[in-house]
Amino acid sequence: MDVALRTVAEQLFFLLIEDADMRTIADINKSHQQFWKKQSPLLAKRILDKDLFDIASEDMQSEIRRGVPPYSRKTMEQAFEDANRARKHFQRTGGALNTKQQVIAKVPRGKVTPDGMTTGQLIELLVLKPKNRDLSAKELWPLLRLKLKEHRLNPRKYTNPKDPGAYGYTYRFKQGRKKMSFKTLSNLVARLRGKKSH
Q1: pLDDT at 23
Q2: How many helices (H) and strands (E) in the chain?
Q3: What pTM was computed for the model?
Q4: Are 177 and 160 within 8 A, CB to CB?
């Protein structure tokens, strides 16, 4: 190592030592013993907690996927401690959010008709109607437009100039418009007919 570089490194080292909390090896060992004394009985209890187990396992798997070297990865106890700390934090700060989310979740989403039907349900009725059962998705496409008009959803055709195969309808949805592509209709038809044939 170059003498000047070594001198700079030594100066930085001594600066760090002066500012650092000078704990002895005995102090470090003592704090580690206290940590493990507390963690060992908790681990058995935490492993039985499915939510904690899932969070801790995902945390440890994430480190593996990200390529964290084994010597730098969390131990199982550390992962459980972090998962427990995160859960306490979310329980403390997220309670109001969870209540708000529960209220929002109860509001029906995707309902497009006054009687509470979704677009998927409209398509299902259209596809499974006895006179339409043998029609292809391409033949059902104009019928879907009529069904959307019937429910005053103001369907409009759209196309993608970059991809001529990507086309569909937009329809009135809440305060804006929503898209229904031909591909989506084709997939729904295939799924519904597949379900019907089983």
Answers
A1: 66
A2: 7, 3
A3: 0.42
A4: no
